[in-house]
Write a structure and sequence with these properties.
By secondary structure, the chain is an all-alpha fold. About 70% of the residues lie in helices and about 0% in strands.
Length: about 300
Amino acid sequence: MTTPLQFEQWSHAMQSRIEHVLTTTMPADTETPITLHQAMRYAVLGGGKRVRALLAYAAGEFCGATLAHIDLSAAAVELIHAFSLVHDDMPCMDDDDLRRGKPSTHKQFGDATALLAGDALQSLAFELIASNQLSIEASQKVNILYCLAFATGSRGMAGGQSIDLESTGIKLSQPQLAQMHALKTGALMHAAAMMGAYTAPNADTQKYQAVDTFAKAIGLAFQVVDDILDAEADTATLGKTAGKDAEQDKSTYVTLLGLDTAKSLAQSLYQQALAPLEAYAQEADMLRSLASFITQRQF
């Protein structure tokens, strides 16, 4: 079993790795159009826990992929995540002025540039996967592209955001809340893990299925913990505006279930994530440790 210190060392190494990959694959902030490229880099670089990239690396290694092959899938999912945050923070969406401890992209660069930056980040994500830089089989690329596109669209992240906007002031049932977050948050986290897995040559079907089940459970657990932290932590700790959902009268797992029951649900989902990994030994340890990190994080 991986120790906490080993996981910490691995996660820091992967966070540094993905930061380098993103820094070198994004357009330089001196390249025309300069302001747009500055906004893109501002939205992506120098912040965040990179949980989605960590999922890609852990799942990819579990299935037998090399880090070099996983890099662009990890970068692509982080670009999609960043694009979603840029758009979510805008006045027409969640209207938030703070992200990752600094002004949101639209506050720093204006609404129009932020909108374009989000659009460009989304395009760049697919460009990276389709490019010759990713030297894997064409069938693997198609699987990765489909996975990412599905998770980003109306049956994934965009659809979840639409449901979220329509649900302001409406008390959702637990199944309705789970469906919304399975789309808004869970779909991209699931995609991150599957994209990492798909970069592996000749991975067996059972490992793909294990990653699939693991990622669905841990994606929902991530959102439950987010709701708990939103209720317990302050803005300085979170790096974003605390209590925003409650202020906007949106349903959360805490408002629906209460704090203690929400914490119990997070623990249950953690156990569900671990279940498909029971058949595997050390090769699944980083996935196990990542599940623990996601469900037990304090910030």
